[in-house]
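Hey all, sorry for the wall of text incoming. These are the two entities for the joint prediction.
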Amino acid sequence: MKRKEEIIRRAVEVFEQKGVSGSSFEDIAEAVGIKREGLYYYFRDRAAILVEITLEPSRNLLKGLQDILETNQSSEAKLRLALENHLDRFDPNYLEMAVALREHHIYETNEEMEILRQVWKQYSDLWIKLIREGQASGSFQSSQNPKLVAYGVLGMCNWLSRWYDPGKDIPVTEVIDTYFSMILNGISR
Amino acid sequence: MKRKEEIIRRAVEVFEQKGVSGSSFEDIAEAVGIKREGLYYYFRDRAAILVEITLEPSRNLLKGLQDILETNQSSEAKLRLALENHLDRFDPNYLEMAVALREHHIYETNEEMEILRQVWKQYSDLWIKLIREGQASGSFQSSQNPKLVAYGVLGMCNWLSRWYDPGKDIPVTEVIDTYFSMILNGISR
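and here's what came out:
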């Protein structure tokens, strides 16, 4: 499977450099240094490569959140851990996740992506559950729509894929601290 | 210019249905009911159509925020108005803005989009300014990085393009109320 891993690594680089819509199957073959026909041995098309890139980190993200929700901690503590679970992945898996999030739309007409979309659906449903539990236990305000809150938090976090560069920007730990305090207590003094 | 407007309207429909990366110049010509050559009379390529679609609403968004920042109100009031300015546009201009935001990445390798990117840069810089002024006046907590806060807010709002359907979902006014209260005071009870 070493060859397949190398293809994935090169594909991520190509997608990052040229964007998914600007990268052809041929570009990836060329970057790997094999012929188009050789690449077909491993992947049917560009979309299959994208699924391979994004499915594992997405499943890890989901698994991480599931584990957090199964613990016996306060909702505040779970929120903090859930933010860490989400945002820490921008560090080691930055490239993959950035590609996955930025190029999200390409999946919309592609049936093969259904499994990936289901993972994401489960993931955002778990976020709604986290908020709902916090409201039920009296930790969070119950007047706010849990779906709106959850999607607001996911929006804050996922938007990092549009502007955040872990090498140059603010450390991830500061992002986590700030977003945790913002979400919990707001920005008002 | 009526013909040009019709092309834009059809192009938005095509982009919405098939996604930008799945829509060709020919698809748009076909939807308008003219030949590819006829479409060239109005637009050089697909990217030129996208600029035409997104530039005006983006400039309106920027102008709206500039006007708000020039008033003499409290930072809380400006935050509220800035959210309204941003989110109200999901209603009448939903299609255009959804296309613009979702397909953002396509601009990244296209030089023609530079002008649009500058409008967006000015817009997010103004958001940072709004937060910074609120911190300076003592309305907002000064311990939070203004850029992180501003991008967090923009992330919450822009993420709507991924999930929000103004026809079926929660009313925009509720989104504005909830996000305003979340940003200002958080979700903690």
